[in-house]
Amino acid sequence: MTAVVEILGLYFLNVFEQTGLWFRMLWRTIASAVRPPFEMREWLRQMVRLGWDSIPVVFLTSMFTGMVLALQTFNGFQRVHAENFVGSVVALAMLRELSPVLVGLMVTGRVGSSMAAEIGTMRVTEQIDALSALATDPIQYRFVPRVVAGIIMLPFLVILGDALGVYGGYVVAVKLMGTNPVIYARNTFQFLVLKDLWSGLIKAAVFGLILTMTGCVHGFHTRGGAECVGRSTTAAVVNASLYILLIDFFLTKLLF
User: Fold this and answer.
1) Which of 14, 91, 171, 203 has the most CB atoms lying inside 10 A of its own CB?
2) In angstroms, rounded to a whole number, what is the distance separating the alpha carbons of residues 94 and 205?
């Protein structure tokens, strides 16, 4: 019994330690972001890497999510003769919830992992120490461009995901299931309000901050060799995904 309590205590102590470390690095990143010099070229490079290069993943994920959602919803609503409301369900689900969360998770797996691996490799090969020796702040040089790119570009990816998800639902409902296209298009936007769009974009910005900060923090505090870089990369993806799912509940409660 004592051993179990000790293990649980160490686990919770590690959780609190990691949480405090995350917020400490967040504060250092914010302080560095408003202090010159501003590496605009690196900011743009990270925006392209996180935004433009992620479009194929977002395209496939959002499109097929909207298609599957429309197919499942149509089959369920058909039992109560409510097929005309499939468009409303798909649009609300994509804008409010599915697009921000799915885009955040996919970008975490694609970009968050590479950030952790890149910075972790720099740490174990002492490149981070070399930056400090050259009077270059590694937080400002490595963290800030990635975090700024995540906050700015993820909302644009979510807007793209919203459009693709709604279009995917339209293709399935109209082309495959034979729904009236005029009624479907009208019902798609009938129950939407501007808040549905803005809530998803706010979530996207927060998720962009979470996934970039988590990847950078885990990479920055890597110790050891190549095996530890792999562990940091795995931990960054898993933890960022969990943070996104947890924070999503509180954001939904706060926004609605």
Assistant:
1) 203
2) 16
